[in-house]
User: Fold these one by one.
Assistant:
Number 1:
Amino acid sequence: MRLDKFLVEAGVGSRTEVKQLLKKKLVEVNGVVETSAKRHVDEKADQIVCQGQVLGYEKFVYYMLNKPKDVISATEDNHHKTVLDLLDKTAHDKEVFPVGRLDIDTHGLLLLTNNGALAHAMLSPKRHVDKLYQAKVQGIVTVEDIEAFEKGIVLDDFSCQPAQLLIKEVDEKAETSLVHITIKEGKFHQVKRMVAARGKKVVDLQRLSMGPLVLDQSLSLGQWRRLTDQELVALENFKVEI
Ligand code: URA
């Protein structure tokens, strides 16, 4: 691959920044200063050093974000802060994007990557990837609601697949319930609309997991970390299996 492409993908900087670094003789290939952006390198065999640092080649990057409210699941927006604004420079240089969307007022697990094939596998309606949400509901959730979710809630424009509803807590006095809902689809406002179809209202929604990926509870809202090797293996196996 071209040296400038390698350097951008290694997270060194933008194409323009990389050109400057080359011009300033700050890049070495196998111990020899290289100034040509067009130079072809073998990313597996050649040793590439930039400003004294040996660069490892990473084509794909994966971020787990604990998305806060009031931030939108997009890469750009004229009015709101986006999830990309919360990540680092590498995420921008590598052009990561969110794998699916959470509503502006939903918080919790969001995966961001530049691996289009993985994103496609996770989002494909044919693959039925489980998404687990914790919802605080205004109203008392009942056994009838559980059965209705199991049968498949019918919305105005869409019949949902069977979904699992688990009652975690009920506060009779406040008339609120805390539930876990697992859905296999990802239609617009799906969880909120399913709960509304039962005459109740979601007042807080958090995503806890998506396929094999579970929200790291040590991440506070707005914090992120790269996926661990273990999580990457789990995702890769999952992609093959589903
Ligand atoms: N369902 C919703 O209603 N909102 C989300 O953000 C995700 C699932």
Note: The radius of gyration is 22 Å.
Number 2:
Amino acid sequence: MFEKLPIALRTDYLRPDVTDEMISARREQIELADHLLRSRKCRGAAFTGWLHPDGILNQEELVRIVETADRLRQESDVLLLIGIGGSYLGARAVIEALADEPERVAYAGTNISAAYHARLRAKLEGKRVAINVVSKSGTTIEPAIALRLMKDLASYNAERLIVVTADAKKGALRKLADEEGYESFVVPSDIGGRYSVLSAVGLLPIAYAGIDINKLREGAARCAELCRSTDPLSNPAYYYAVARNLLLEQGLVIELLAVFEPHLHYLAEWWKQLFGESHGKERTGVFPSSALYTTDLHSLGQYVQEGRRDLFETFIEIRDGGPALVVPHQEDDADQLNFIADKPNETERTLNYVNRVAYEATALAHRHGGVPNMTVVVEKLDAYALGALLYFFEIACAVGGIMLGVNPFDQPGVEAYKRNMSEILGRPGYTQRPLESGKARYVTF
Ligand code: PA5
């Protein structure tokens, strides 16, 4: 199953809602979308620089990323990554999934909470802090505030410890880097934030966390090569893209990405941004949501099994789930688990096996409950497989969005709240207006 790539798509629980025949019937649509993407004739074509992962960075830039990450690792205890949305989610997804010490990277610029920043400062107290601030526009309010609040933590050696990732020429951050002489990297002009994980945006913090970025890139490049097939039956990424569009056409408007590994939580967050911002426009798109199983089987599980039937699920199953912990034998067997602990086959005593059974049992139960589901199966979670998985979702998202008729590379809707904030806060160039809460209505006790 994994001869060419350590990723496959399980589809049997999509039936009868989606069948191979229904997917194959969309072959022409796939070919057209693929052609528009690759010939750069689709909407938003100026932002397709991620399409060839091995062409995003040249050798010199790659070497500099690795050298800078190594230097920062030696000179600091913690890297504070300041950025929001596509400027941090990809890095965090990979770091949380793979790093031996994910706590060596802290995050700011993802919210405007005073409590969060106060706690973060307390946590970083006494530590040697390096900062990587990432913003393509350089004007996003959350990371800009966080940089003001946090930059003193690295100020004793700012020139060595503050690294900027910004647009090559424009923006406040580029200006800051130039004026202060900070080491800097470029957010490619032809790649939007949510597709930027394999550029310097993601790779510098990922390399700082000790993860092999070459393997990550290799996995993505191999996936890109295999995704050249427009036959959805031999290209799981295109199968996935078409399946979710078909389910949407049938009124299943919510997709729940369910993972059985807690350290994949941020992969799901990255995936939500990718599909949410890329497809959620012009009154269409599947609403992307996520769950962490088995935890959420004890909260959301009831709804998924028996609530409104307007959702489908995508599981991520990791075949080799890491350390071979076994369920221990216990003399009194008060919890009656010795039937697992005493199994003659050692594999079947492991947590990995029990977790896999939990996935199988859930997929079957939800299918019986009327929730079509598919599974992205990953042989083993390492940098190579994760690189491939990131690309798998990126290309599925791009092609799926083109088939939906939207521009999968813009995010005009994100501006609405920013414009309101600028007006209420009185940003120069905006007509100032008061907070709406003067007119708000409340129900009170
Ligand atoms: O995907 C995107 O383009 C967005 O999520 C941006 O990455 C996010 O809004 C942050 O923007 P910037 O990098 O300009 O600060």
Note: Residues 383-404 form the longest helix (22 residues).
